[in-house]
Amino acid sequence: MITEKTIITVKATVNVPVAKVWELYTDSKHIVKWNTPSEDWHTTKAENDLKIGGKFLSRMEAKDGSFGFDFSGIYNDVKLNETIVYTIDDGRNVSVNFTEDKNTTTIVIKFDAETQNSIEMQKGGWQSILNCFKSYAETNG
Asked: Which of 70, 76, 99, 137 has the greatest count of CB atoms below 10 A from its CB?
């Protein structure tokens, strides 16, 4: 039986130069401030060893304490200010590409869909987190 993976793409253009976008996107002290899909969630802990073979972990929790999970994996490729490729602990692959044009940076994230939630729900959740990053970066960049 052959099953094709569904790859979901989300993107945002951030009105901040790529070097600052990279710092805000990859530094643990910033990740805990923007890594949320909505106001009722937050990231309580972030660890990031940004190198090939390095591990990352973000602990996301509902603010009411009703649910939480670890989002973690290992980096497969890292090119400063350009690309981050990683494998989530569940085996799915993710690529994040950063493209600078003057003083703006476009971030394109492509990830393997999982099978428990609808494609629309997954895309919406990842896009919401990226939108939170955009807002954070434009305020702090």
From this structure: 137
CA distance 35 to 30: 9
HSE at residue 133, side-chain half, CA atoms within 13 A, is 28
87, β-bridge pairs: 74, 93
Question: Side chain identity at 75, as an amino acid letter?
Answer: Y
Query: Nearest 5 degrees, angle CA 98-CA 73-CA 29?
Result: 65
In eight-state DSSP terms, residue 16 is S
Q: Are 57 and 35 in contact (CB under 8 A)?
A: no
Here the tokens at position 81 are 């200010």
Nearest CA among 68, 49, 50 for reference residue 59: 68
49: left (phi over 0), alpha (psi -120 to 50) or beta: beta
- Rounded to 10 degrees, what is the CA torsion of 47, 94, 21, 135? -90
Beta bridge partners of 62: 41
How far does Cα 12 stand from its chain's mean position?
A: 12
